[in-house]
Structures are given as C-alpha cells and as structure tokens.
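Hi D.,

Good news: the full-assembly prediction came through. Inputs first.
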Amino acid sequence: MLKLITGRLLLAVPLLLAVTAMTFIMFQSMGLDPVIRILGEGVTPESRAALEAEMGLDKPVIVQYFLWLGSALTGDFGTSYFSQRDVAEQLFARLPITLSIAFGGIVIAVVAGIPLGIVSARRPGSLVDRAVSAMSTVVYAVPAFWLALLLVLAFSVTLGWFPVFGYTPFERDPLGWAWSLTLPWLAVGLSSMAVIARHGRSSMIEVLESGFVRSLQLRGVPMGRIVYGYALKNSMLPVIASIVLQAQLAIGAGFIIETVFAIPGLGSLLLDAVVIGDLPILQGAVLTVGIVVVILNLCGDIIYGVIDPKVRPS
Amino acid sequence: MSAIIDKDSAMDAVVKEPTVGQRLFKDPVAIICLSYLGLLVLVALTIDLWIPYSISEQNVLNRLAGPSPEHWLGTDELGRDLLSRALYGTQVAVKAPLIAVSIALALGVTAGILAGYFGGWWDRIVMRMADVLQSIPLLLIAFAAAGSFGRSLTIALVAVGIVLSASYMRIARAVALSISQKLYVDSARVLGLRSTTILIRYVALNSLSPLIVQTALLVSAALLIEASLSFVGIGTELGTPSWGSMLTSASQYQDRQILLSLVPGILITVTVLACNLIGDSMRDLLFGQRRSRKLAKMIRISEAARPKTGAIQIVGSRSEKARAAGVATDSLAPAPLLSVQDLTISFPHQDAEVNVVSDVNFEVEEGETFGLVGESGSGKSMVLAAVMGLLPAGGRVSDGAVEFEGVDHRTLSRRQIASLRGRQIAIISQDPMASLSPVHTIGKQISETMRVHLGYSAKQAWEESAKVLDLVGVPDAKNRLNDYPHQFSGGMAQRVMIAAALACKPKILLADEPTTALDVRIQAQVLQLINSLREEMGMTLIMVSHDLGVIAETCERIAVMYAGEIVETGKTSDVLSSPQHPYTSALLHAMPRNVPRGGQLLTIPGIVPPPWADFSGCRFAPRCAFATESCTTHKQVMINEVRCERTQELELQVIR
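Then the structure:
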C-alpha cells in the first residue's frame, strides 16, 4: 500500500511540473504585458526596466518558470499585479470554501446516487429503474448554475427557507455555515448524483450476474443480505474512479456556483483575476488546484486498495 | 490490377457490419434528437433573414413584460424581445461546440493514432499528455486561458478543445493499437499499401463509431462550458447574446419575470440532453447495453410463473408435511428424501418456450449416492438448479414436480425454498473461484449460511467455520479464514466451497462437476474428500458429471441424460457392465480407460441437439449407429429403465 502511494506521488510530480510549466509558458508567451498591467500605459522606459529587473521579466521564460517554481515550493506564490497582496494568502483563504462546496456536493451525490443505483439495479427494467434512469438523464443535462438559480428562486426568494446569498464562516456558526451552503451543495451535487447512480446501477447489475451471487443464493442467503453484504462492496470498485472524477468536476462547477450565491471562494477570486489579467493568481491557482486533484486521485487509489485485497499487500 | 481488388476486399473486412450510423436512424429517440439539433443549426444559419426583432432593439417602457402578441415570450429587463434573443442564442450554441470539438477532434485523433500505431516513445509522450490535460479542472484551464487573453471566450474554447482532445486521444489510440495488430493491416502491408494509406483508410474508419459517440458527449460538454463561461461574463465576442449570458441577467430579474430564466435554461438543458441521448443510443448500439433490459423482461416472466406467497407453512413431522403438500398420508412407504417427477424445464427462445429438460424422473433415498451423467447441454445441471428451486433467469418448471421430504417445491414460498437451500440441500459447483466474492474473506463467506440458517452470532459462526474448514482439509484453517479467495489455489478454493456447503450439515449434497475445473492431480483428492465426508456425515449425494469414471467411483445408482431426457437408469454396476441404451454404450466406448492400449478411441459423431431442435423421434437417433427408420419417427418412452425401442434386439458390448 505504502509502495502504491509513493509510486502515485512520484508520478504526480512530473504531472504537476508539466501542468504548471504549460500554463506558465502560455501566460508568458501569449499573455498581456504585466508592466502595463501594473504601471499603466504611460510607463517610462526607466521604470519599465526597473520593474522588469525586479520581477525577473528580463530573464528567459524557462528561468522565470524555475524562479517561480522555486519560490512556490517554499509557499511563496508571488504578489498580485493589482492588489499587491500575497497570492498564497489569498488562495489559501478561499480554497477551503470552494472545496467545502465541491465536496459537500459530492457527499450528497454519493449518499443519494448509490442507493438509487442499487434500487434500479435490483429490478432492471422496472418502473422504478426507468424512472431513476430518466431522471438521471435529465438532471445530468441541467447546467448546475441554472439549477442554482432555480433553487434560489424556489427555496430562498419564494419560500424563504434559505438565505438568498452570502456565506457564513464555519468558525463563526457551524449550523449557519451548513445553512448557507445547502443550496450550493444541491446545485453542485445533483448532476454528479445522476452520474454516480448510473455507474452504480450498471456496475451492480454486472456484479449481480456474477457467480458468487448465485453461489450465495444457492446457499439460501436472502437477496437483501447478498446485495448489501457482498455485492455492494464489489460493485463499488469501478464507481470509485467515477466519484473521484465527479469530485474533480465539482471543483470547477463550484467556481461558477459561488458567483450565484456571492460566496467568497476561489471562483470569485479567479474571475476577478481573469477580468484584470492577474497572472500570479491564476498561476498559483493552477498549481494549488492541481495539487488538490493529485491528492483526490490518491484518495481514490487508497480507497480502492482498502476495498480490493489484491491491491493490498498481505 | 489484382492488387487493387485485394485492397478492396481487405476494405470489406473492415466495414462489413452495418455502421452505427445506419442503425441509429432506426431509433426514434435518436431521430428526434438529431432533428432537433438539425433545426438548431438551421435557425443559427438563417436567423438574420427572418428575425422579428433585432437583438439590440430596446423599449424600456415595456421591460420585463409577459407574453403578448408582439412578444410571444415577453421582454427582458431592457424591453428586448426574449424570443428573438433566445433564437439568436443558437448561433453561439452552434459556434462554441464547433470551435472546441473540432480542435479536440483534430488534435486528439492525430495524436492518438500516432501513439497507437507507432507505440514506443510516441505512445508514452501522448499518454502522459492526456494525463496532464485531464488532471486540472477544465473550467480552471478555461479561466486561465481567458485571463491571459483579455476575457476572450474564443481563446477559452480553444483551450477547452485542447483539454477535451485527451479523451479522443485515448479512443483513437486504443482503436489504432488493436487494429495495427490485426491481420488485415498486416495483409495490407504485404500488399504494398503505404503506411499512411493504411492509417487513414482502416484505422480512421474503424474508430469512427466510438469517436462519434464521444463527439456527441463532448459537444454537450462544450456547450455547458460555454454557458458557464458566458454566465460569469467571460467573453461575448462570438455574437450576442448567448443562452449563458442571458441567464446572467435572469439571476437578477427572474423573480419578476420567470421566463427570463426558464427560456435559456430549458434551451441549454434540452440541447445538452439531445446530444447525450444521441451518444447514449449510439453507445447502446455499439456495446449492446440493451441486453439488461431484455434480461429484465425474462426475469419478470419467470417470476410470473412462480406462486407469489406460500399458502402452506412448513410444519414439523414428515406426515404433516406430506399432508400439507397434498400427498396421501395413509401409504405406509416412507416418502423418498428427494423425488423428481416428470420434471420439465423451459426457457424462452425466440418468442416461444423450449424445453431444456423433459420428463425427468428419479428418486433418491436417504444416504444414497446417485449420479447424473451426460454431455454438456444434456440438461443435467438444470435438473440440479430445479432441485435447488433456483433456475437461471428466464427458466421455469413448466411441468412436473420436485419433492423434498415429501413436500412439493410448488407449495412453498420463495422464502421457504430459500430456507432449504444451504440448510437441507447444498450444492457445490464447477468453478470455485467464480463462486467466491473476491473482496470478502473466506471466513465471512463460510460463516454466512450459519448466520442465516442457524442464527449464529458472527463470532460463533466464525469459530464453527474454522472447524469446518479444518474438516475439509485446509491446513492452518483458523488463520486462513482471514484470507481472500485470490490467496487460494483452485483445489483449496474448492475445499472452501465444500466447507461453505457443508457448514449447516445439509441432508443432501449436490455436486455439479465438482472436479472439472481442477488440475487432474487435485481431482482425485477432492473426489475422495467428498466421498469420505459423505460417509462421515451420512449425507445423501447427487453427483453430476460428464465423466463416467467419476460417477462410477462415487455413485451406487446412475441416470444417463441425453438432450434433456434420461435415456437409461439403474444400478451403476449394471449400467456400466451391460448398457441397454446405445448412447450409454457409446459413452463407455468413448472413455479412454475402456480402450485397450493401442486400440482406437471411439468418439460419438455429431453434437447434442439444441433444445429447439425437432424432437419427433428418438433424440439420439441422428447420432446412433443402430437407428432405424422407426427410431426417427417414433417418440421414445422409458420402458424398464431404458428409453430405446430396439434395446431387446441389440447386443451392446463393453470392451473390458
């Protein structure tokens, strides 16, 4: 297991290097002139030269990349072109909020999606199965941000059950935190739920056709006990990858959902950075989110290893 | 000239199946979706010619109005016609996926084919690239690209296209890889086609179907991304408005005019849905996922044929049970332990039912050993399945009865039959590895029956499992309970299955080809184990095998099955020494051990007929060396334990 984890981590290093290098080169070679971004159009050649020297912009792109990477490894992501604030500080303040939206949504998706998948798989072709599969097909096509708008209209504006927008930090009021994130979670989670239900269903159907299920039936074990005691664990193996992928997609969906609810997460920070071309923030976000994705994949591998004894060393 | 013809025939090998596209046009859902998308493109192309209101025509006095004859869907917050704006939105909805997907397609397919066809370093670099592209959320890449180019949606979509190319890479690579190894490419190479021609003609053609499926799904993904980006205000240069950007204003005004939100939202959803449904139905056509639906139908048939609830309780004594089952109780002879009467099992086949087992009769007394012999396809395993009360999906007992301890299975509910399985009647099957859940310890799996049938606690059942496992000769039984199936050899796994079957000390053990999947070396050991356990526990044994030798060693009485019927039955020694049915005799002659050294091993010509064959005469007649005209026209009946009208005339010999 340990070997597996270290192996995965070692593989992740070149991956992160490639991702950050690619975005860095994209920014530097195609991006806008940072000097104009910071000092404005009427910059004098002297102050331009001074700033370029200060920021290392006079060096080749490759050197710049490794300078950036070197300081990024020590936790220094540079400063924003505009606010002059520390990038790392801003990213780390907002990342947890975005992640709590994404992962909360995934928890809902898993908790609802897996039982739906099981119910449909136990009676394929039944009314329930067809209802679930029709529902998941439609839900999967609904854009998360539009769903968010509809949820706000229904539950916040019309019924008044939830705040229309805003965010309550967890430290201040855990209950209020959950309250302010309930609708975002639903908006992020529903399409993932549809995917997980679908994969869970097909995986479970396959497992229910396997020899050991029949063998248990032949020993008089009731179907419910077989499904929950044996088939479920087997059917989860292929679904894990699907859940990990959904969690990764949910981070992106979270960026957009945040703007609907005016939640100060990574998404709103990034959008501001996009509008004003604040490259250090975008570059820092690519690395940070890249690391999160690597950790996510690693969690998937570990869960897989816990379930499948063949991956686990004896 | 001839080379060209050969090339074309090689081409035929590639495209011989009807393409997915052709079959797609028979699916009503796909036709509706394709028509919708076609209409969308048509609107996008022609809208400038017939649009009722220009997109910028404002009328602030008439803002947020509801539907009216002038504005069918009402107006937005600036008094602009909502319908016109929604229709104009088709332009971005067509353009955006076009940009992203065409880039993804060009880049991904090229890289994937190169990787798959040339392998080696090409392959490694391309697959690493695919990993890198898929390791960051797509929207973040789109943000970053848009950010470095002044909020440009086009640039964002180009970046999205590059990222989406990863999924094309994997498909194209897999197809190229498999095809580059296939013979016809090799033969084309021999024929002297240049490798670029091979690539374009064969590889691209074969990857077409999965690529189209992927394209349908990526178009919908690109559309959703465009909508998300437009919604948060990245780029509007592709032409205003987009459905996504229309939702931006809806977020402020939807509580005053719901249509502002509903119209673009529904349009996005329906368009994405249409693409996904096309992708789904193509995938179904490609990989045959409809199978499960058909299977479900079959399961429903079999359930309908079975009584829903048990009308009768299982009661204590045998006579009460017998009375409950409607069996005459005044007869003094005790009922046999297991009795199979006129058993007929049918399965659906092409809108009709066919019998895989017909009119099977046998009785097994307590403590007896009984063997069922026959080639594969003779229906012997089905008989066991019926005795277990658990036929495979679709199958049903269409006639006759199975009685255990005088109680007819038909009078029992599903739960009551289940309570017999594993408790009174146990079975071991052919493939022990497939019969064990790979992710659960064998301890849990052996314990299961004791927990279900005997109500043992987990700890109690575990301790008993150790004893049973020790009994079946697994060394270090106590510790091995914690092991998983993959840590056992085939022979040891079969011992585990025997332990699981015997855990509740059943009255009858059914053994369905228990040694067939094992090493020859192990076969004898396992057979010996079954025999000694049977003697120790005083169990009744029914053994099923295609191997007469296995049956001869184990069973006192046998029945020979052919094409769903018993053709001969009797004491094992009698049947083997003087077979009465030509089939039995032929089976004996086909046994290697019955042929003298250097002699010729006789095989039975032909194969067992399928259940849907025409059975107007003797079922064995077509393969029988002694068949007459009469044999092929007269249905054979069981007389004196033999189903053969010529048995009196024939002198069937056994070489010994």
